[in-house]
Fold these 2 entries.
Entry 1:
Amino acid sequence: MSRVISNKRISPGGNFFLLKTSPGNGARMGQFCMLRSWGTYPLLSRPISVFDADGDSVSFLYRAVGEGTDLLSKLREGGDISVGRPLGSGFPNIGGRVAMVGGGAGIAPLYLAAKTLKSSDERNTADMYLGFSDEPLLLDEYGSVCDALAFDVGGFVTDIVPCGNYDCVISCGPEAMMRALHEKCKTARVPLYVSLEKHMACGFGVCLGCSLDTTRGRKKVCADGPVFKSDEVF
Ligand SMILES: Cc1cc2nc3c(=O)[nH]c(=O)nc-3n(C[C@H](O)[C@H](O)[C@H](O)COP(=O)(O)OP(=O)(O)OC[C@H]3O[C@@H](n4cnc5c(N)ncnc54)[C@H](O)[C@@H]3O)c2cc1C
Ligand code: FES
């Protein structure tokens, strides 16, 4: 069992929360954890991407949208939460000039991705493009871990990404956004990695509830992903 260090609402009028837990669990960029802060109901734990991680803590950025995340939002400092081990393959070891494109709650895994990319080689650059439907979130925090940050509110963040300027693009957010980005990256001949969301039950490859068709056959988003090369899945 993990302990809640803090659980703060970060959007004054909205339903986004930043949850920090202890101890650390060795999570890498692009992985997720199956969170649970309740007993028998709801039955399933909820998959949430790792926002940040170090030796002592793991943090999550989540939007309260239903029963499970609403229960998470009620957690107080010192409370108990089951975080479990980090799951999924995460983002591959990318390098060079990288664009990171996130929409809504999909911005979550990009924070640790930018930190990891920048710390692995000082020549790497990370430019962040964030899209929000109504209010921007955590701009100072994201700005502090990347080389340049641009954001869009209420429009299409994909319109402001010059894909051809990069060696690689990674993305997480609404499927329509990632599909539009896939078309732009295909035209620019730049590889794109997308982090997919599917309803999940077990979270570690046993129930087959999160399967999807790819160019490499049927894959499980929880165990084979959640990150895939975009031309394998779109
Ligand atoms: C690998 C992965 C990483 C994720 N990372 C984050 C994250 O970092 N931050 C965040 O806010 N959310 C994230 N999600 C989505 C999050 O898991 C769902 O919002 C959450 O499970 C909803 O649970 P709930 O009980 O609050 O809502 P429910 O009452 O179960 O459902 C509320 C609404 O959310 C939809 N929904 C439920 N689960 C999912 C899902 N897995 N994908 C898409 N829609 C869903 C339902 O269809 C319904 O419309 C992630 C999902 C996956 C699969
Ligand atoms: S959630 Fe069970 S196999 Fe993916």
Entry 2:
Amino acid sequence: MPTKPAPATDLAPDPAPDAAERRSTVRALLRLWPYVRPVRARLGTAAVTAILASCVGLVIPLVLKWMVDGPVADGDPSGVWLGALYLLLLGVAEALLFGLRRWLVARPLAGVEAGMRADLYRHLQRLPVAFHDRWASGQLLSRGTTDLMLLRMFLAFPLTFLLVNGVTILIGVGIMLVQDWTLGLVILGPAIPVMITCGIFEKKYSAVARRAQDQVGDLTTVVEESVLGVRIIKGFGRHRSQARAFHELSHTLRGTELRKARLLAAIWAVIVTLPEVAIGAALVVGAVQVADGALSAGTLVAFLSTALALRWPVESIGFLLAMSQEAATATDRYFEVMDAEVESAGGAGDPASVLGGGERGPALRGASRAVQARGEARLPAAGGLRFEHVRFRYPDAHPDSTPLLTDVDLHIRPGESMALVGATGSGKTTLTALVPRLHEVTEGRITLDGADITTLSREELRAMVAVAFEEPTLFSATVGENVLMGAGAGAGDEELDRALAVAQADFAHALPQGTGTQVGEQGLSLSGGQRQRLALARAVVGRPRFLVLDDPLSALDVHTEAAVEAALRQVLADTTALIVAHRPSTVLLADRVALLSGGRITAVGTHHELLRTSPEYAHLMSGLDGHETDEGPQEGNGR
Ligand SMILES: Nc1ncnc2c1ncn2[C@@H]1O[C@H](COP(=O)(O)OP(=O)(O)OP(=O)(O)O)[C@@H](O)[C@H]1O
Ligand SMILES: [Mg+2]
């Protein structure tokens, strides 16, 4: 099986105690098999081609021997020309075969890399929000770029050449032993020390390679953060300290890379020097034997040129092993992400998130069909949105800490809109994130029209519930595409215009290319309030049955807010809505208000009732008026 990376073991059988380490390198690389499987025939052919090319190279010394002992010794010029012609043909054949190998592997390996990258991206989309909270984005980025490139390089070179060089060395040594076994033994002398060095090298190199690749991830994170946070950095004059942080990290990385280079230099020194010394010794011993008449000059020439032909296969082992180590590390890092568990499917459907761009169309189409089917099949037992004894603790919070939400009980009747009010940090955003299952409840349950959300598939759920968060994220796409992201496939200009009207986002029509205007990364070319209105339009465009809005109007001036509210009221008339609110004006949008305090809902009623009966509510409404309204939403807590 040509694709099995076993040659590493064949070439450097391990006398050192790092056998376990070696096996885990091989095991790591074996995990690539599912990706390599489809191209195994090509890779196998390429390996056979390369072995053939190497063998052709090994025939050249034999032709030399024939020339020296035959035509040269006999003074036969035509024989010498014939020999030269043979040599030329052999050389051309070798070059052609190696060229063929390259052609054979290039396209399939680019395909393998692209396939792995696509899988990684798809997997990242399906991973729960809790995973992304925990992982630095740079670490994910570097896995999708540098690590995958290392893997492609490994499949292109070391995988084939560890095998090819191993076979070449075996055949070459065989030829040399047949020519003259005493000289053969002299040449073989350094084999054991070289193997031991390889063993030690591999172990050390694997640790350093891992460190270097992790540091590349850290560095990527810093670059990414400083690009995204460039306004803050400039605004606070932090570019020097940011540059210093970057410099320190890149200095560390440089140190690690130098350590890699030193290790490579060390193994290279051993691998190059010892065989050269052995060749020198063989030359001396051989010359003495030729002088004694015990050996023909042609045999010595053939022997030495075989030995020289084997120099490259032996010398290259050092960096082939180094590349294999890096590839094993890259494989580990790749599968660390791929092994992370995706969101449980819930219900019958596939867990793919409809919040990510690409797969949205078909997923949503399927979802709305599913929703229709559901509506006909199951009649709502207790309609509306209901939280039943919901308890929630963030997965990365200390297990002994009190949960953020201890016992939330709340019923929002069908068609009702409920405002959610609470002190900052009380868990309002967290509670809203539980409805589309961005986080899973720790205990208790949430039902939509009587159906437990965990029994619905993600598509069903997310087609029923639309969300707009505090930080209105826009993607690098047109305004229209950003808004229609919230609708099923087939939604067109009519829906777009309606949603823009509801969200008072008609400014979009006045943009240079209207709703076809591209907004930059994260929509930075728009104002905070404009972005917020587009996010709101995205939430309402699909006419969802349930609407969850996290402080959707915080960045708007009072006039715009009033206009949005008037339009929203029409939408909210036939939608069940949960709206996080900080300001009385937003609260007044809703039919009733719920107060979140100490991890539970402590009061429910109309705004005026609560003002009378709940001192905490009255305090929040008087004290928080205008709370955070002038802050750009992008500059929140960065989640
Ligand atoms: N991903 C997370 N992991 C761990 N803890 C978190 C996470 N996100 C938020 N928290 C914590 O949960 C608490 C509640 O946060 P949340 O965002 O729900 O508050 P909020 O009520 O929406 O506040 P605000 O009014 O300021 O928007 C905070 O103390 C915060 O530190
Ligand atoms: Mg919040």
